[in-house]
Amino acid sequence: MSDTTLMSVLALLGCHCVKEMHGVMDKWEETFLAEIVGLDTNSEEKKNYVECAEIVQKYCEEAGLSVEVFDSKHGGMPQPNVVATMDVGADVTVLLCTHYDVVPAGDTGAWTRPPFSLTREGDRLYGRGVTDNKGNIVATVGAARELIRRGSSHVNWKILCSPNEEIGGAWGIDYLINGPPNIRGDFGIVVDSGPTYVSIGASGIVNGTITVYGTQGHAGYPFAFNNAIHLSLPLLERMLDYVDIRRKVESQYPAPPGSPHATLWGRFSLTVFRAGSKTNIIPGRADVSFDCRLIPEEDPEEVAAGLEEFFQTARDETGVEATLDIMTKVSGWGTDPDNRYVRLFHEAVKRAVSTDIPIAADLGGNDGHYFIGVGIPTVCYGTIAEDSHFHGIDEFLRVDDFEKVKRALVEFAESC
How far is CA 54 from the centre of its chain? Predict the structure, then answer.
């Protein structure tokens, strides 16, 4: 064998090894991802939703899927939900849940790559929403495209691509499941989780705001006014005792790998502090937002009532004038790990990715509770690695994780 031939063979082997080690994403998939990451679809402003849905529809149709769009039009604002169907005439239909809304980019000046332009560096793709959840949209549609090419799926698919997930899902998946579209299936996969475990549940949430009242005035006369920031400190210190109360709440569902507890547990965090307008003004009001995470077994109404009772005690003890407003109450959820489709999906992921993939439940929440609410057994799997800076600065997606999700979805559809 000549040196030139040997080098050619080694080059081919090298390319094969790179694909095996780092995954692949073809040009069609990368272009699809670039187009939707290029649109700022943050859930606060709700802009570019129509444009993003049109791009998703275009690529779904190119993949061979039939598409319907259901617009919930909440508040007169378009909120299109894309439902893409792969009908192979099977008896079983699988619902795959994704979302195209993202959290705001935050301080764009802190990003080292542009948040709304796909940047590739080696095995990483950067941009807001690239892994949560736009990369998962592309992985799901890419898997459907592969199954259609092969003609190998043993189940029908309905890919649900919605807005509104980052703020509760009421006009997204909730609308598709419990609204006029009345979408149904035999099994649900929330493609909005991590690649290191198969999730069979997710945390619930109770969140809201504590408002502390003082009196506003000139900062040169602090003795004449009640500073809301100063007043808030003893109350917030007392509220931090609730962290220990929540920590003692334990679930039967396993926690994700690397967690400080073996099973899911209750959590409470103070997350936002807003007060004051100028340095020379004593603030008369301080607003402190909180996030309370529930285990799947908890009732959010009961947790909210317990939190309000704790707050009232803390307020009375500290003598601070304050109110508490609950904004969100969402249930967690869990699926029976012995369900037939759950076991089939777990085995498919182990074959496609690793035999070491465990069963766990998510520390965050997701739209799976809408499926569970109508009796559809559900799992979660996705590209969102713990270190991927999702919801943070320089969010990224590993191409290898993208390929893991795509392979797992294909393997499941072919082996059902």
Answer: 22
Q: Give the orientation angle of helix 399-415 with respect to helix 135-150, to 10 degrees.
A: 40
For 351-369, the pLDDT digits (tens) are 999 999 999 999 998 999 9
Name which of 345, 363, 346 is nearest 296 in CA terms. 363
The residues with which 86 forms a beta bridge, in sequence order, are 157
3-state secondary structure 241-284: HHHHHHHCCEEEEECCCCCCCCEEECEEEEEEEEECCCCCEECC
Q: Both tokens of residue 132?
A: 């949560």
Q: Return d(Cα 215, Cα 328) in angstroms, integer.
A: 29
Neighbours of 59 (CB within 10 A): 23
pTM of the model: 0.87
What letters, b where the CB count within 10 A reaches 16 and e where it falls short, cover 351-372? ebbeeebebbbbbbbbbbbbbb
The residues that bridge with 212 in the sheet, in sequence order, are 286, 322
Residues 97, 392, 46, 329, CA torsion sign? positive
pLDDT in tens, 180-234: 999 999 999 999 999 999 999 999 999 999 999 999 999 999 999 999 999 999 9
Structural domains in the chain plus CATH codes:
25-202+332-415 (3.40.630.10), 204-330 (3.30.70.360)
Q: What are phi and psi for residue 331, nearest 5 degrees?
A: -70, 145
Query: Rounded to an integer, what distance in angstroms lies between the CA atom of residue 138 and that of residue 151?
Result: 19
- Tell me the two tokens of residue 388: 């991927």
